């Protein structure tokens, strides 16, 4: 049996991209970004595609907005 690497964007989103896996994603991000401290309080998974408003602007991609314990919002 072959497994898909979670380093591939599609596989990562399948593993962590649902509402049911939100607690796991919060724990994972806290471990990777904040050394295991419980800094991220909640997440919002958003539509990642945001086209530029002008032809000269690049498209941007946003997957997750996180609310930290101090109330600040960060884009991951």
Q: Distance N terminus to C terminus?
A: 32 Å
- Stretches where pLDDT falls below 50 for ≥5 residues? none
- Percent in strands: 15-25%
Helix content: 25-40%
- Summed up, the helix count is 2
Q: Number of DSSP strands?
A: 5
The major sheet is characterized as:
3 strands, antiparallel
The 3D shape can be described as globular
Please state the oligomeric state of the protein chains shown: single chain
For the record, the count of structural domains works out to 1
Gyration radius, rounded: 15 Å
Strand order within the widest beta sheet: 1-4-5
Q: What's the pLDDT, averaged over the residues?
A: 83
- What structural class do helix, strand and pairing data support? alpha+beta
Secondary-structure element string: HHEEEEE
Descriptive notes:
The strands form 2 sheets. This protein has a 3-stranded antiparallel beta sheet with strand order 1-4-5, with helices on one face. A two-stranded antiparallel ribbon has the order 2-3. 4% of the residues are buried. It contains 2 helices and 5 strands, in the order ααβββββ. It has one domain. The protein is of the alpha+beta class. The protein is globular, with a radius of gyration of 15 Å. Strand 4 and strand 5 form a beta hairpin. The mean pLDDT is 83.
């Amino acid at each position: 049996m072959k497994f898909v690497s979670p380093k591939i964007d599609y596989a990562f989103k399948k593993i962590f991209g649902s509402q049911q896996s939100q607690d796991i994603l919060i724990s994972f991000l806290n471990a990777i970004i904040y050394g295991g401290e419980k800094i991220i309080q909640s997440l919002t998974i958003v539509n990642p595609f945001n086209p530029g408003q002008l032809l000269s602007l690049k498209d941007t991609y946003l997957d997750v907005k996180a609310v930290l314990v101090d109330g600040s919002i960060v884009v991951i």
